[in-house]
Amino acid sequence: MQIVILKNSVEVAAYGANIFIKQLQKKADSVLGLATGSTPVSLYQQLIAANKAGEVSFAKVTSFNLDEYLGLEGAHPQSYRYFMNQQLFDHLDIDTANTFVPPGDADDPIEACERYEMKIAAAGGIDIQLLGIGRNGHIGFNEPSSGLMSRTRVKTLTKATIEDNARFFAADEYQPHLSITMGIGTILDAKKVVLLATGEAKAEAIRATVEGALSASCPASALQLHRDAVLVLDEAAASQLSDCEFYKHIETENQKLQAKLAR
């Protein structure tokens, strides 16, 4: 697990976007795992800017989103399909037929979960998966107690997650309590994982992820098992780590080594 600690959320978004840009420049037909929420928005804005500047193309890209609210159709303003269209897909040279989000309005959600796993496998697996993290350590909608080898499935949201997401819904608007989410096992299958976290509210979850025991009580701790997981944090999100200066030193040494290897 690589820990990158940066000054603020602007630097976090720039660092994360650069990882995705390099991936697409290396492999134009990459399979991307994408996430919703407030954290990735700045990263997406930078990907859009890079695309418009001709630095990178999404024409051959396939994407799979982590999750979706169960009970919302894609055209619903609070659905994650709608979010992705508004925040990213509508502004890229991507073929929307190659962008996949779990179907929140599926007649048979269980079967839809199985089909989603099959689509990921048919695409050759996910090359790079973007993650955020919840205050309770959830990744995707894998809430505490989620199995560490779980696959795409229907999941009940915790009270904490429902409360955190309530700000996106009007007071009289229906807010789903169920979701379809990639499982932790599905996430761990990605060749590379990039998790972004900003703000003091995420500090406890980051500490448990990095320095806590591998446990279903903190789903993100499963990233300790991944061969190529990068956590990109601002100083506030990293504030509860036992030795931030140590992690910063290690990252500096990594950058020196990469620069030397690139010569």
Describe the structure.
- There is one protein chain.
- 35% of the residues lie in helices and 16% in strands.
- By secondary structure, it is of the alpha/beta class.
- The strands form two sheets. A seven-stranded parallel β-sheet has the order 1-10-9-6-2-3-5. It has a three-stranded antiparallel β-sheet with strand order 4-8-7.
- The chain has helices at residues 9-26, 41-52, 80-87, 109-122, 159-165, 184-188, 203-211, 244-262, and strands spanning 2-6, 31-34, 62-65, 67-69, 99-100, 128-131, 153-156, 178-181, 192-197, 229-234.
- Helix 7 (203-211) links the parallel strand 9 (192-197) and strand 10 (229-234).
- It is globular.
Spans where pLDDT lies below 50 across 5 or more residues: none
CATH class, please? Alpha Beta
Radius of gyration: 18 Å
For the record, the CATH architecture stands as 3-Layer(aba) Sandwich
Structural class: alpha/beta
Strand fraction band?
A: 15-25%
The total beta strand count reads 10
CATH fold name:
Rossmann fold
Sheet with most strands = 7 strands, parallel
The total number of structural domains is 1
Multimerization status: single chain
Mean pLDDT: 91
Distance between the termini: 25 Å
What is the strand arrangement across the widest sheet?
1-10-9-6-2-3-5
* Tally of separate helices: 8
Question: What is the 3D shape?
Answer: globular
How much helicity do the residues have? Answer: 25-40%
What's the SSE pattern? EHEHEEHEHEEHEHEHEH
